[in-house]
Structures are given as C-alpha cells and as structure tokens.
Amino acid sequence: MSNGLARDIRWVASVAALVLLAAAAAGAEPPPDGRTLVRTYCSGCHLEKDGAFARISAIRKTPEGWVMTLFRMKQVHGLALDADTRDAIVHYLADTQGLAPSEAAAGRFALERRPNAQDIDQGPEINVMCGRCHTIARAALQRRDADEWLKLAHTHLGQWPSLEYQASGRDRPWWQIASTELPAKLAALYPFKSDAWTAWRAKPARDLAGSWVVVGHEPGGRDLYGTAEIAHDATGGYTAHYSLADAAGIVLGGESHALLYTGYEWRGRSTLGPRETREVLAVSEDGSRITGRWFDAEHAEEGGDWTLVRSDAPPEVLAVLPRALKAGTTAVVTVVGTGLAGPGAPTFGAGIGARIVSSSANVLRAELTVAQDAAPGARTLSVGKASGSLPIYRQVDRVDVSPPFGIARLGGGKTPPVTAQFEALAFTRLPGGEFLALGPMAAEWSAENFDAEATRTDDVRFAGHLEAGGRYLPAGAGPNPKREYSGNNVGNLAIVARIRDGADRAVEGRSHLIVTVQRWNTPPIY
C-alpha cells in the first residue's frame, strides 16, 4: 500500500466514523464506498497505478470543484451517474483531495456566492489571463503541480479553441504565456503539496452535534438571533433545527439537512420561514464555531451571514441589537452571546441607565436610557464574564453605501433577474476627528443617472426600480422600442441613501450600480 493511499484511508476513516455510527443507529445501510466508486466509474479513462488514479489523484479541489468536474465528465464524455453515486464520489474526493481551511479562506466568497465581492488580486498578468472568464478564486480553490496546471491550459484550449478571441486575449501572446510561464506561477501560488493540507488531514473529525447560539444579518433586511440544535441524521450528515427571532421579536423557525465535507465544509439545504435556502458554511479548526452564508435557493444574491457558536463556549458577546444608540433616547437592547448569566450585574458604560428586562445564559434584554449629554464614543458593556461594545452618538456625520459598486442583471423568459441589495452604513465623527461605525441604519433610497451619457439615454427610467429597503429590481431583458436603437434595458446608475437625522438634517451616501445583460451560466464557483 502506498503512503498516499494509507493517508487517504486514515482520513476517510476519521471523517466517516460518525457517519457509520449514525447509519448503524438508524438501521440504514452504510453509504457507498467512494474509492470503490471512483475505481468503478473513473478508472476506465483514469488509469489506476500504485493506489493513485491518473489526473484525479494529482488534483485537490473543494466540493463544488469536484461537482463541476463530474458535470464536465457528463457533458463532454457522457459519464452517467445517479445522484447517490455522484454524491458519494464527490464526498470521497473532497475528503481525500480537498483544501485545508487556510487554503480555501481567500476564495470563500465564491463558494458562499457573495454578490459584488472583491476578487482575489494576483497581479495584472494572472488577473487578465484567468480573470477575463471567471474569478481568480476559481483557480485559487484548486491545487495542482506545474505539470497539472499546464494540462489544464491544454484542456482550456482543446475544449474552447477560440478562447483567445473570446477572452480578448489577442492583446498578448496568450497561448505562449499560458503554456510556458503561467503553470509554474500558478503552482507556486496554489501547489498540490502543502504543509497546511498535510496538517489538516492529521486532525480528527469534529462532532458538531449539540446546542449552538446563532446570530445572523441579512443585508437590507434584519438581524436574527437564536439557537440551533444540531444532530446526526440517518444519511450520515446532520440536521439543524433553528429557533430564531429578529430585533422586533418576530419568531422565525427553520430546518437544515447538511453534509460535512473535508471535515469542515458544511453544505446544507434548508428552510428559513417560508423560504427554501442553501447554506455554505465553514467549521473552525477546533470545531467550536461555524461561519458562512445562507442564501435563497433561486436567487443566490439574496441571503445573509451566519455565525454559530457552541452554547457552552467561553463567555463572549456575539451581537448587540440595535448596534448603536443615540444620546437622549431610550431603547430595549438585546445582547446575544455565551456565558451571559455569570456573576455580577451587567454594566453598559458612562451615561447609560439600565433596567434588565430578561436574562439567560445566551440572551440578555435591557431597557437602556442614554443621557442627553452623553459623550459620543464606544461604551464597553459587561455581561457576566463577557464584554462587548456599544457605540453612542449624537448625530450621523457620514453614510457609506454597501456595496460601493454593484451589478444587477436583467431578467426575462426562463432566466430570472439578478437583484442588487444595498444598505446604508452610518458613522459619527468623534471629537478627535476619527469616525466611529454605527452599523446599518434605515434610509431613504433613490436612483439617479450616473453620468452624462446615462442622462442622455435616461437609464434610470428603463433599467428597473429601487425598493424602499434598498433592493434594486432590474427590468426585463430584450429590445425596448422606447429606447435609442430599441436597445436593451441596461443602465449606469448612482444609488443614493439618505439618512434623516432630525427634522431638518440629512446625510447622504452614494454607490455605483451597473444593470447589465442576463446571466446565462451559473456554475457552483463563478
């Protein structure tokens, strides 16, 4: 047995131990053996020698990366797999040839399908050579040696012979760069062998069953908090039962069914209230925290952030809602965290009076009254042995609109639109001149033509409309006889957020939005 095969077996054994126990407890058959399935369905083309499969064993990818590989095998080579077999192969390959948490960190935005995220910057050459067709994250979420990166370049040109023209690559000796310089550079950045992967594979699988505290934020929507009860299910994955509420006290329940890949990659199908959602989360290396994003099953751009922490974790404040208080006001504040029922009365800092409404180990609610003359600045609040920060302000002095640059896409026919969600982030200026972040605030939203050309073509009239909560809904695609040359309903717009701070004062922030053509291709890693 080769050393590589032995390591594979040890890793699969550690990851699969909990799976087999759960299946046995439920009286279910064990899941198919992934390596046997790879030998059965892949070795006809990928020769097996010394415990390794040609090409396959020389690459490491995320679960989504292996899904894309099997999809390409189906489209190009006619590979026929039922869903259970495909999933078992993906699970095996992601577990034995995946990425360590530190290796996947930079590209997580692409796995989590975050809209309008800033791509990885690897310099002008790689950015242009690879980034004209897809994100640099798509390359960063796989690992190869130089020979394998060269083979990938050949695959690109073999399957897309006109690639240089389609990618506007004739501004440089594209193929010469792709076949000589680029493989070594990519292998240095994203090598097949790494200390991080070796160390990660030596770690035992973490058991995620138990009680967790949840905090979440949906941009332009609301903050959520509550609990998740995670348990093993009969399929070898996990179920999570959510009991959540928002700052207004509106209760929202949900349930997730998830698989854990590579010992930390949580992929869930869930319901959150009436919505069917997906979860792309990462478990911390010590198994004490789960973070990531959930999003709508049909609209990946619509979703929010999750943080889950074990309910018996060391004392920590995870969220304070609302995030900031204005001098001279009274509000009920919710503090969410762990170990909040510790000794001593809660304190909220100078100039703040408090009346405790309710208290538990994970949630404290208090009615806070901020003195009219309270100095602006961050107060340290202490609840038990946990501490957090609560900004106090007298006025809003700056508004940033997030994202600063956004893209929306027209919809039509069977292709749905891609919306763009904005939110207004408020700041107050402290006496020393620095700005203190106050968090998202309600704003009045409007759209304007971005420049003179957009004004001439009146883009704001045709491109779509902006909802009261800061979500832009693009118009339908296709020729519009009301536009110049019956053009499409694309647009170049400015998005304006106006926060009213008193009867006669308002502060504005601006963002840039491009409304462009439909999205025809939505791969798991864009």
Please characterize this protein's 3D structure.
The chain is of the alpha+beta class. The protein folds into 4 domains: 3-201, no CATH class; 210-310, Quinohemoprotein amine dehydrogenase alpha subunit, domain 2 (Lipocalin), CATH 2.40.128.120; 319-393, Immunoglobulins (Immunoglobulin-like); 398-516, Immunoglobulins (Immunoglobulin-like, Sandwich), CATH 2.60.40.10. It is 25% helix and 36% strand. It contains 14 helices and 29 strands. The strands form 8 sheets. An 8-stranded antiparallel β-barrel has the order 5-6-7-8-9-10-11-12. Strands 13-15-17-16 form a 4-stranded antiparallel β-sheet, with no helix packed on it. It has a 4-stranded mixed β-sheet with strand order 21-29-28-25. It starts with a helix and ends in a 10-residue tail after the last strand.
Instruction: Report the count of strand segments.
Output: 29
Strand order of the largest sheet: 5-6-7-8-9-10-11-12
What's the number of domains? 4
Helical residue percent band? 25-40%
Q: Residue-averaged pLDDT, rounded?
A: 92
Shape: globular
Strand content: 35-45%
Q: Please work out how many helical segments DSSP would assign.
A: 14
Rg, Cα atoms, Å: 26 Å
pLDDT under 50 segments (min length 5)?
1-28
Structural class: alpha+beta
What is the straight-line distance between the termini? 38 Å
Largest sheet: 8 strands, antiparallel, barrel
